[in-house]
Amino acid sequence: MNAVLAENLVKSFGDVRAVDNVSLTIKEGEIFGFLGPNGAGKTTTIRMITGVLIPDFGDVKIFGTDIHKDPITSKLNMGIIPENGTVYADLTALQNVLLTAKFYGMKKNEREMRANEVLENLGLSERKNSLVRSFSKGMRQRVAIAAAIVHSPKLLILDEPTTGLDVYSRRLVIDTVREMNSKASTILLTTHNIEEANALCSKVAVINKGKIAAVESPEKLKKTFDTSGYVEVSFDRNVSEEVFSYQGIEKAEKWGDKWRIYSDDPDRTVKFLSALAEREKLKFVGISTSNPSLEEAFVKLTEED
What we know:
Blueprint: E1 2-13, E2 16-27, E3 31-35, H1 42-49, E4 57-62, E5 65-66, H2 71-76, E6 78-81, H3 93-103, H4 108-121, H5 137-149, E7 155-159, H6 167-182, E8 186-190, H7 194-200, E9 203-208, E10 211-216, H8 218-224, E11 229-235, E12 249-255, E13 258-263, H9 266-280, E14 284-289, H10 294-302
Parallel strand pairs: 3-8, 3-9, 6-7, 7-8
Antiparallel strand pairs: 1-2, 1-4, 4-5, 9-10, 11-13, 11-14, 12-13
Domain ABC transporter: 4-234
Keywords: ATP-binding, Nucleotide-binding, Transport
GO molecular function, one term: ATP binding
């Protein structure tokens, strides 16, 4: 079954068409990444998928239920962490999570047990009775996540969940995403962090200027734009660009204390560098071959015409 089926979504604000005929299919059990530069239409699309905004045109179904015709059923299947957290500063962490659990119709004993469980998993047990107003941004985000997952939603939607977080909080967020997915939750993740999407997502969609530019697995997207390989090398002493003159090497560029040697045959380039080091009595400090990156694919898909 499809967890999310969004078809031909259109949304304009005045003369600006923020989302232009966007369609997304997210299969049950996926971790689906939604990438795009600022102003590309990510958050507007998410708001239509979650029922916060009504599209000018198009439909959204959550596990087969039309979100606009039956919003209660659709939203009971969701846990949502918006770009700006929705926790109440004048409540404690525990009160925030218990309140959300009550909204989702959980029974008292169940919601108390589950609220304490998720707060412990997110490293907040010792502060669960403290007012959220005293929390750091990272701690507030963890409370928002606890509230979003307390009812074990079938679909967890996270809009830029790790932006501005410290390393510890970011790691806890990522671990929670993986844990929820292992327990059968489908994840829809919007992020600016390309490395994060590459590590987490089984499929990504790239949106640019309100339109979908690509939908594919990270590895396939990388290979699409893997136009030029290189070998990165550093020696124990400086060398000039001229030493890299060799048939098959397209160019050599200085990168800090390293050289990037561009070639369509990395294997032959590595063998050449080994012979060069032997001849010039150089020692390798480091050597590595390039792999295509999701960041490069993202830049290609969203660069200005």
